[in-house]
Design a protein that fits this description.
241 residues, mainly alpha
Amino acid sequence: MWELGRVVFLGAMAGILGTGAGGLLLSVVRRPKGWLLSFLLAFSAGIMLAVVFQDLILEALALGGLTITLLGVALGVAALFFMTLTVGEKRLSSTGLIKTGLLLGFGIALHNLPEGLAIGAGYFASQDLGLSLALALCVHNIPEGMAMAAPLLAGGYDRTQAVLLTILAGVPMGIGALAGGLLGTLSQRTLAGVLGFAAGAMLFLVFHELLPEAQDGTHHIAATFGAITGTFVGLIFLVLV
């Protein structure tokens, strides 16, 4: 029981500290407007594209193959599409930006679950493996917290609220670690489907919410370079750190 408690704590801290640190880094900006708003929204989109194609899709393909991955992606896109129909279209307003940030947090939280499973299963296979996975995933979660915080801050949330919500998005990693510790692991095809679903949800948010909002104004150059910079930052965290 003590060991199970340790692995849950390890997974939760990896998620909370990672996304929370990302939110904290972005919280130095109070409420971005104008070119900075366009830049940060596109920056968030670039980070998410790096996460999707350098992390989620590659891992899903390795675990379950092309068919399961594409099915998961399609279901993720469909789920977010119907979710946005439910909450309605509200672009370039405080409410719309907050909605975008919250939906982005949902996608991040969703893909933290299988990452937590990996920590839990890895820890009980080898403590060193579990610790290494937790550290790596904690660092990888930093840009995701940054991506989530940008639209929340732009929508009017204060620093404390934005950071707390990014922390909340990391909690499911602890839940996943608990499941990994209890079950050992889930089937590779199931994990691939979940990762694909998270990737699809994030892709929908990038192309339906973040990039259109970043480009819907006079600061197109700022949005373009924001997306490029975000992609670079995401790749650096995912590949080099």
